[in-house]
Amino acid sequence: MAKDVYIIGLGMMKFGKYLDRSIKSLTGEALKLVLDDCGLSMGDIEAAWFSNSSWGMSSFQHCIRGQVALSANGLEGIPITNVENACAGASTALHGAWTAVKAGLYDCALAIGVEKLHDTDRSKVMMGFITGTDVEVTMEMITKFQKEEQELREREAREKGIELPKEKAGVHSAFMDLYAMGARMHMKEYGTTQRQIACIAAKNHNNSVMNPLAQYTFPMTVEEVLADREVAYPLTRAMCAPIGDGAAAAIICSGRFLKKVGRTRAIRIRASVLQSGNRVRQNDITARTSRIAYETTGIGPGDIDVAEVHDATAYGELFQTEQVGFCIVGEGGPFVESGATALGGKIPVNPSGGLIARGHPVGASGLAQIFELGTQLRGEAGKRQVEGARLALAENGGGFLGQGEAAMGIHILEKV
After folding, report:
1. What residues contact 274, with CB distance under 8 A and at least 6 apart?
2. Is position 360 annotated as part of the catalytic site?
3. Annotated catalytic residue: which of 118, 186, 205, 360?
4. Of 164, 283, 302, 399, which one's alpha carbon is 20 to 30 angstroms from that of 52?
């Protein structure tokens, strides 16, 4: 059994829109980047975990995805495990590689996440997201939510004596409705404001300007976020992660292997925790998973220097910031509004730009978080560098069981 497990290599391509490229092509780019980063060869990799969610829906490649994509790029003849865990797929792949190295089965393993979401048929892409939920239950919840929202708007319009504008045509992920439901409940219970949620989106867009690998690299003000097209109240388009294509990877190794190859930019994995959701206590998964990670490492949320959390929407970041213990539950709005989560603040969150601006190729997002945090701990983040970063936390949620995530991966990394 390995005493310590390290990330020795990190690789991530620029996220974006690649209609003319294949999953095999994106895989090859990330594989080359991660090997070049640590100076290893494919012959050093003893096993691989491959994360992807949508290849089957888009191109009918439902099975053996990792074997197909990796062998096309020269990596074959080793154990390859295929991982599908919705948006938490990449952190699940990392957890699998970590577990195997920790158990002493392998000294060097690959975790790679690849996704291609852009398609000429946008409605097919949006409908695909609902498969990350209990479809039957979700459709009932969304139908009820949309009916209640419409009734509320009509009542408010009658009271003000105005006519409702016609609905704009368009489609969006069912997840946005689920996040909007959560945001409205949080606003009602704790007094959180739409402006506070907008502060998160503006922060992440502004962070992404300093990240050359981000899908979006333009700044936004809070006012611009609020003025953007409404997706599902209180969420505007600028508060929601875009669809995207991309790939990210990490090479995991034992201390014995690290000593043999003598690399100096390794990052220690202090904790790797994977949990599943609970239908009864739907919103406890992040608190439960982070508590295990803190207990495993003997540290607390106050010891974390920088974090990447799953901001599929700006409200998602607010909620997760509370749940991992960076602030008291219910105070996420004032916490971000104070600047505590900005670069230079108490606990910088999503310096990469997060899913909102860095992009969200579902099967790659968890490893994109790890790439950012590893870059921060190495002191190589340039203008977005968090000064003195030593401990980092990544929270990556996937799918929904009711109002809570179906899967959750939390990793705590440490500068060596």
Report:
1. 91, 92, 95, 289, 407, 408, 409
2. yes
3. 360
4. 283
